[in-house]
Amino acid sequence: MKRTNYAGRTSEAQIGQEVVLKGWVAKRRNLGGLIFIDLRDREGIVQLVFNEEDDRVAFEVANECRNEYIIEVRGLVRARAQANPELATGKIEVEVKEANILARSKTPAFEIKDDVEAAEDLRLKYRYLDLRRPQMMKNMKLRSKVAAIVHSYYDSHDFMDVETPNLTRSTPEGARDFLVPSRLYDGHFYALPQSPQLFKQLLMAAGVDRYYQMARCFRDEDLRGDRQPEFTQIDTEMSFATAEEIQEMTEGLIKQVMKEALGVDVPTPFPRLDWQEAMDRFGSDKPDTRFGMEIHDLSDLVKDSSFKVFSGTVAAGNYVRAIAVPGGADHYSRKDITKKEEYIKRYGAKGLAWVKVTADGYNGPIAKFLTDLADPINERLGAKEGDLILFVADTFHVVCDALGYLREAIAKEMDLIAPNQWNYLWVVNWPMFEYDEGFGKWIAAHHPFTMLKEEDLHYLEEGEDPHQAHAQSYDIILNGNEIGGGSIRIHDPKVQEKVLKALGYSKEEANARFGFLLRGLENGMPPEGGLAFGFDRWVMLLAGADNIRDVIPFPKNSKGIEPMTAAPGMVDPEQLEELHLTVAAEAPADED
RNA sequence: GGUCCAUUGGUCUAGUUUUGGUUAGGACGCAUCCCUGUCACGGAUGAGAUCACGAGUUCGAGUCUCGUAUGGACCGCCA
C-alpha cells in the first residue's frame, strides 16, 4: 500500500476518494461493534471508523490496536454527520476497508498529549515519544521553517554558505573549549569551535565578501534555561560594510522571518539604544521595553539625606537609584519585599530600601528620612498613590543588576507585559573593555578583534587610557533577550597589535595564539564586520517556549547530561591508550 | 565552586506546616467484560506504591533532623 497523503492533511476535497494513510494510534474509542481511531502523523490527526458489520477483518485489526501502535489503512473519505470543530480534519472521517499493524508499542512512559506535562527528565529519556507531541512537532517545524528562510534570505543577498572546521585549535579567552585528543600527535588536542569567528574573518581576507553559515558552536560552560553547551549560530560576515549596513541587512532577515514564519509585521528600523542608556534606564544590556517601570537616578536628591545608607553611598561615588512599582503598595507585603531583598543579595546588593506611597506621604521603615524629598522623588519616578518605590544604593553594576532584575521579575509577577509584542532593538556603542574582577585584569567586552569607534582610536596611544574606548559593536535584543551580536572587526594589523597590547598580551604571546589571524591582516584584509544570531534562542522566543530545550530535538539537561543516550559516558581503556590519555581521577562505576 | 527548591503506583498529583498514629486518596493511563456515532465516548470490575536512598529522633516517620543521589531554577562562568 502506497501512502496517498499525510493523515493530518486529509481534506474535504477528498470526500468520496480512496486514501491510504499511515501513522500512530493516538486514541481508540471502542463502542462495541464500532471503533473510532484517531490516527496521528506529523501533520495532525484524522478519525478512522471501523464498522464490524461492514468489514469484519479490518474491525478485528482495530480491536487489537492499542495507543501508539503504527498502522496502515486503506479507506474511503466521507463527510461526518456531526463535525468536530476542535479538529482541523473534523468535518471528515475515513471509513476503513483494510488495515494492517506495522509496529506494536509498549504502553508509553507518559501520555502523548500537549496538556499532560511529564517530568522533563522523563521526556528527555524518551525524547522520540516527547517529540510526537503536537507542540514539540510544531516547534521543530518552526525551527525548520526559520532555517529555510535564513538560507533563502542570505542566498538572495549574495551571501555564500561556507563551512568551517569543527576540529580546530584552542584559542585563549572566552569560553572553556571542548577538547578532542589527537591520535596522531601525542599530547596534542583539537578544540571544537566556540564560534567560527576567526575563520569567517579570514574568509573576508580570501575575498568571499559575504558569508553566512548555520554553524554549530561548542562552549564548555555551565548550562542555563537559555544556554546549551552545543548550539547553532546564524553566522554572517560582510566585507566593506558599516555597522549600519550590517544592522540593516539583519533587520531585513528578521522582518522576513517574522512575516513568513509568524505572519507578523515588525516595523524597521529597530530602535538603537546606547549601552550606557540601556544600563541607566533598564539596568540591563538587554533591556525589555515591553513595559515601563524604568530606573531613575536619585543620587543628587539624596546626597545630603539623613538616611546614612543613601548619603554615604553617594559620598563614596556610588549610586542611589529606584523604580516605582505601579500599584505595588497593595500587591507586595513586607514579607514579599524581604524575599526580594534576599534574592538581590546574589548580585552583591547589601539591602533593598522601600517606601509605599500613600495619601499621607511615604510609609515604611525609612519613610521618616525621606519626608522632605517625597515630592521631587515622586516627580522623578512618576510615582503616585498606591505605588511601591524600591531603592538600591550601591556601585553602578550592583545597582543596575539588582534593579534590572527587580524590574523584570515584578513585571512578570504583576502581569505588566502585554502579550504578542515583539520588541526588537539594538544596543550599540559598547565599552571596548571591561574589568574582570575574577582575573583582576581588563578583558575585551565583545572579543579582541572588535574595532573601536574611529573617534576613540586615540585612546590606544601612549599615555592615554584605553579603557575609555568604545567599540563598534552591537547586540540585537528581542523582548529582553540577547539573540545576537556582532561588530566591525579590526582590519589594520597596527590597531590589532595595540588592542592586544592593551589586553596585556606580549607580542610573542599574541603571535603564538593568534599568529594565523595577524598574518591574515598583514596580507590584505578588507574592512569588514558581521553578526551572529543565537538560532536556538531566537526560535525559542518565536515559539513562545520558556526553555531552549523545547526547540532542540535532543538537548542536554541542566547538568550537561543527555538522558536518552546517557552521554557523556566512559570509554574503553583501549580507546584511551590510542589517544595517549590516562585518566587521573578514578571515575565512579558507570551504571547501565 | 556556591544558593534555593523538588522527589508519593506507568504518568500527573493530594496528603508534609499549624496533629507524627490514614486501609497513603484522586485523575489519567493500563487489563478484562458490556456497549453501533464517539471525538476528554460511556458503564462495570480489577491490577498496580518497600512514599528516591541511607542514617537519626520517636512507642510510632510519607510527614521532623542530618547526609547522599537525581532533577529544576539561579549566582559565579558564558570574549
Can you put this structure into words, describing what you see?
- The protein has 18 helices and 22 strands.
- By secondary structure, it is of the alpha+beta class.
- Among the domains are: 7-103, OB fold (Dihydrolipoamide Acetyltransferase, E2P), CATH 2.40.50; 291-414, Gyrase A, domain 2, CATH 3.30.1360.30.
- The protein has an eight-stranded mixed β-sheet, with helices on both faces. The chain has a five-stranded mixed beta barrel with strand order 1-2-3-5-4. The chain has a five-stranded antiparallel β-sheet with strand order 12-13-16-14-15.
- A hairpin with a 2-residue loop joins strand 2 (34-41) and strand 3.
- Residues 587-592 have low confidence and may be disordered.
- The structure holds one RNA strand of 79 nucleotides.
